[in-house]
C-alpha cells in the first residue's frame, strides 16, 4: 500500500498526471519485458539443469571403464606408463572463454582435440579415446553447472525486479493517478457548486431589486 | 517528488536498454566462424560470446552450399506488444536453418515460433541463437 504522505507530496496538476500516466505505461512495458525475460531465463535454467544431470550420468557410466583400462595398462606397462604416454601422446589443450546466455555471462571451455598419434602401444588407443570422452563430459558438466549457478543468480535478481514492479511501483503509480483524478473531480464539483451558489445569489439580488 | 519520479523514469528506461545487452555488436558469417580456431563474437556489453563448434558444423550440414551466407547468431525477435510467448525469426537463410533444425514448415521470409519451439531450438542451437527483445514494437 502507498503511504498517505507519499500521495500528499504529489502536486495536483495536470502536468503531473500526464507524467504519472507516462510512467505507468513505461512501467507496464518494462514489467512485461522483464517477465518474458524471466520466463526465458527459467527455461534456460531448466535446460542447463537437465543437461548437467545427463552429463553427470554419462560421467558415472564412463569413469569405471576408463579406470579399469588404466589399471590394466598399469599392469602391462609398469609404473612409469603415464609418464611415457605423456611424453609420446599429443597434448590436449583447452581454452577458457565466456558464453552469454540472455545477458548472463558464464564461463566456458573450448577443448581442442589432439592430433593423430603415430606411436603404437597395445591398448593405448582405446584408453586415449575413452579418456578423451570422459574429459569432454567432465568439461561439459562444468559448463552446465556454471551456467546453472549464473542463471540462478540472474533469475533471483530479475524476479526481485519483476516483483518490485508488480507489487510496488505499478500499484503506487496507479494509486497516485487515481488520487489525482479524484482531486480533479472534486475541484470540478466544487467549481460547479460555487457557480450554482453565485447564480442563486445573483438571482436573489435581482428579485430584491 | 518530481526528482523521485525522474529517477524512476531513468531506472525504467535503463532497464529497457539493458535488456538487450547480450545482442551482438557485429554478426559474423558461418564460414568465417568455421575458419576461426575459437569462433567468437563481441556483444554490446563488451563481453565475448563463444560459439559451440558442434553447432556450427550442424548448421553447415543443414544448409549445405548456402551455409556461408548465414550470419550468426540467428536473431529471434520478441515484441512485448504482440501476443505473449510469440517469437519471430526473420531472414530467408535464418528461417530455413531454424525450420530444418526444428523440422517445421516455413512460410516466406518469416518464421513464427512459440515458447515450446523456442525451448527446443535453444536446446539444439544454444550458442548460435539469441533472443532480441524489441520494447518499441515492430
TrEMBL record, chain B:
Pfam families per the UniProt record, alphabetical: DUF61
Listed InterPro entries: UPF0216
Family: Belongs to the UPF0216 family.
The protein's name: UPF0216 protein IMZ38_07165
Amino acid at each position: 500500500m502507498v503511504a498517505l504522505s507519499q500521495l500528499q507530496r504529489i502536486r495536483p496538476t495536470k502536468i503531473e498526471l500526464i507524467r504519472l500516466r507516462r510512467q505507468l505505461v513505461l512501467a507496464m512495458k518494462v514489467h512485461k519485458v522483464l517477465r518474458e525475460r524471466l520466463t526465458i531465463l527459467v527455461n534456460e535454467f531448466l535446460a542447463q539443469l537437465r543437461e548437467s544431470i545427463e552429463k553427470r550420468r554419462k560421467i558415472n557410466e564412463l569413469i569405471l571403464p576408463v579406470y579399469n583400462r588404466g589399471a590394466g595398462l598399469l599392469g602391462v606397462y609398469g609404473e612409469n606408463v603415464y609418464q611415457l604416454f605423456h611424453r609420446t601422446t599429443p597434448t590436449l589443450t583447452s581454452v577458457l572463454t565466456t558464453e552469454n546466455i540472455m545477458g548472463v555471462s558464464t564461463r566456458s571451455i573450448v577443448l581442442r582435440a589432439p592430433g593423430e598419434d603415430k606411436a603404437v602401444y597395445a591398448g593405448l588407443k582405446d584408453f586415449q579415446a575413452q579418456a578423451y570422452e570422459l574429459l569432454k563430459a567432465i568439461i561439459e558438466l562444468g559448463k552446465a553447472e556454471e551456467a546453472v549457478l549464473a542463471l540462478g543468480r540472474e533469475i533471483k535478481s530479475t524476479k526481485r525486479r519483476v516483483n518490485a514492479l508488480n507489487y510496488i511501483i505499478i500499484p503506487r503509480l496507479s494509486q497516485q493517478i487515481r488520487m489525482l483524478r479524484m482531486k480533479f473531480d472534486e475541484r470540478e464539483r466544487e467549481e460547479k457548486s460555487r457557480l450554482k451558489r453565485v447564480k442563486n445569489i445573483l438571482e436573489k439580488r435581482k428579485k430584491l431589486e | 517528488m518530481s526528482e523521485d519520479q525522474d529517477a524512476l523514469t531513468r531506472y525504467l528506461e535503463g532497464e529497457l536498454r539493458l535488456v538487450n545487452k547480450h545482442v551482438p555488436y557485429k554478426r559474423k558469417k558461418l564460414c568465417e566462424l568455421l575458419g576461426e580456431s575459437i569462433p567468437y563474437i563481441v556483444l554490446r556489453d563488451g563481453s565475448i560470446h563463444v560459439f559451440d563448434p558442434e553447432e556450427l558444423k550442424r548448421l553447415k550440414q543443414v544448409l549445405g552450399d548456402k551455409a556461408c551466407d548465414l550470419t550468426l547468431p540467428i536473431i529471434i525477435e520478441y515484441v512485448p506488444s504482440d501476443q505473449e510467448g510469440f517469437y519471430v525469426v526473420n531472414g530467408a537463410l535464418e528461417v530455413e536453418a531454424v525450420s530444418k533444425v526444428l523440422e517445421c514448415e516455413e512460410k516466406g521470409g518469416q518464421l513464427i515460433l512459440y515458447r515450446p519451439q523456442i525451448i527446443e531450438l535453444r536446446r539444439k542451437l544454444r550458442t548460435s541463437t539469441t533472443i532480441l527483445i524489441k520494447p518499441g514494437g515492430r
